[in-house]
Amino acid sequence: MSTVGDQAEVRLADAPRPRHLLAEFGFTFHPADGELHGSGAITPAMHAPGTGRVRPSVLASWADMIGGMLTIGLITPRVPVTLDLDLHLYRPAPGSGRARAVGRAVKRGRSVTVIEVEFLDDGGAGFGFSGMTFMAAPGVSRPFSPRGAIFDQPEREPTLALPLADRAGCQRERPGTAVLPRTEDGLNGAGTMHGGLLALAVEEAVLSLAPGETLSSLALRYLAPVRVGPAVARATLEGGLGRVEVRDSGREDRLAVTASARLTSR
Prior knowledge:
Structural class: mainly beta
CATH architecture: Beta Barrel
Radius of gyration: 17 Å
CATH superfamily: Acyl-CoA thioesterase, double hotdog domain
Strand content: 35-45%
Distance between the termini: 33 Å
Order of helices and strands: EEEHEEEEHEEHEEEE
Shape: globular
Largest sheet: 13 strands, mixed
């Protein structure tokens, strides 16, 4: 979803955009008893490089979608922005089959909403969870119908044909640095870079220091939107724990995200 924005008054245009990159995951959603349930097939294009496991950044993107949709239902027509997002895995994530996600609001405040999402494998066993905090973007609005085409779709197969980093154009410039371009099919509702894709940049920066590894946890604090790009993520790694800063290189290297990530213990 959106990341924290400037305080300017904005009315979002209704101009059509290209089909979103994250729609290629093929995740579908349906509301049930106040929760939002998601389902999606895991394919090799979603794997962390050199592993047979789904990328934590894919799960973070999925959680962000669910959290944003739940928050929209509570604050429409205002547009939610993600303040922070964390993801934690109990055990290695699956690499195939269908995964499920169950999202629920645990705080429904007037200014802040807190969402939790649980992830389950094909057999119904939980393998991780995510927590997020959202607020309404100042001065930004967009009409939204929670019963629109987003919900209650039949299960479908992913159309992601390239490995996710390649599809997003995210490149490991050097060990510890990943660069993600701003593209029209990677924007959020406020017209800035999607928070889930910024999670990909964080992940790539850390994994560039530990090829063949994957992550067991990921935590991001969104400080400012990436409006121009490219987003440049720079990571350090010590004792299996990575620290990352993401900056908008097109806006005088403005700090956009601070993050941490832990490698999976072997």
